[in-house]
Fold this protein.
Amino acid sequence: SNAKTQEIPDYAEDEDDFVEFDKLLESAVEASDVRIMGAKPVNKGAYMDSVREMYYKKIASRMADVSTSGKNKKNKKKNGKKKKKKDGSIDRYSIVNIAGSVIPTFNPAFRVWEYNISGLDSEFQSGSFQIKGWDDFFQKLEVNMERDLRDEEKDQKWSNIFQNNRINNKVDKSIPTRMPADLNSGPGYTPQLFSPTRFIQYYADLETIEKNYKKALKDGSTEDDAATTAFEYQVEYSSDDEPYRMKSLLTKDYIKLAVKLAKYDELWDKYTERAFLSTGYTD
Amino acid sequence: QLPGGKSKTLHGRFLHITDIHPDPHYKTGSSAADVCHSGKPDKKKDTATRFGVAMNGCDSSMDLMEYTLKWVEDNLKDKIDFVVWTGDNIRHDNDRKIPRTESQIFELNEEMAHKFEKMFRRPNSADPRDFAVDVVPSLGNNDVFPHNLFSLGPTLQTREIYNMWSNFVPQEQQRAFARGTSFFVEVIPGKLAVLSIQTLYLYKANPLVDSCNSKKQPGYQLLLWLGYVLEELRSRNMKVWLTGHVPPILKNYEESCYHKYTLWTNEYRDVIIGGLYGHMNMDHFVPVDGKKSWKAIDAT
């Protein structure tokens, strides 16, 4: 609430997001409470809709604003105020991949990821790098962490005495420093060694498996033979499949996909069908 | 060729598997209304079939678990470089007649660990840590007792977990693991690591998690560990996948933990390739925003 009352224009863009986010995901929490007990899926569609609203559509809107402001080179004033320049950089995002499960909440599933290893063998053969042990690091880590954690009581005492004093502004080591500007983005952002290139989503279509199992039993197979014949995982889809083909799996590809999913309902329908592992689930 | 005369063939592929939830009490032919443990089904959709029915609310039958692992062994084992296995290897506590016990949770987790070891270890090696395909497990909220509640170690639970996973956790990380149950594996030595994060220390539903702002909080200590590890990986020019059970979205993580974790993932984007999580049983992705998290942290 302090942030709201202060004039911190840079915060304004996102200020309401968390409040809205909380409301929209309320149904997801309820669903999650039920799910803890392993019950039937509930409100998962509402949860996915909230992901679309709060992540994908926000990104789409930000990207649209960026492209518009790029066309109008001058930062136009609106209602007397200077319109804030939107940040369209991809680097601000990190991708959280949440997987389908083996438990048949929907159809059982897992994923195989493919990643770039080209050039690695020649690098190994040339002996151009050394493999370093970790013993020293872990010994030092223990000492460092003990030192970092030692002063809790002292810290609290001092921070109570020196409220708002600069002693309160000491470094919180659970917060990182900014990434140094001279470092390049990693394999999640630009194509290089270890960049993810593609994934294959496997699933077990339980309805078909049950049909085939029963049929094999009817045809005279033993239970074990019938199970071996009937049970299989198959490819549900690959990341480069239509209708929203991803050329690679860099952060920019996910952001592009998020924008498409925000815009096009037919793509969204396909995406949620896949999210629910082709079970046809709706709330 | 690796040190010690070992060698490893890389395929440029790895497996992510999660939330297996095998249930030893699953009974084929029982009623889904009775969580597939007992009862007579009143209609076809209510019947617990051998491999299960999607969306009927039951855990995995033991057959579903066994045949799934067998399928992986037959079809993927020789084509992948490592396995990311993000936990929840135990049935849900959803049957009042058969409440879960701590020992059952340990036993089934141990059994699952043995299965993965057997499948991916080099069969003829005397070294129990010699894996043809490295396996990097992480702990789910159902793998701990009481449900969701998990404290910093060393405790009985962290010791038991280390015993179960002793062949997965590198030896030099034993002490750090006993405290924070997070660790990493160099799946391509000197080049690529997979970090197993103890996400329960950031998880809102863990009653021991208040925030990530006090040094006594498990989440604070986890983030401290994460920072040192990421910095070392950066200095070694290694790359890393972050993995864990509960995904870092605002509704799962305590707010300060969420923002701080997001900042680490974003400010080490030169090192981190991405994040792989389970828990929600739905296939989707969420782009988290480092800039927003800086603003939230600055504002508080």
Summary: Chain B touches chain A through 119 residues (CB under 8 Å).
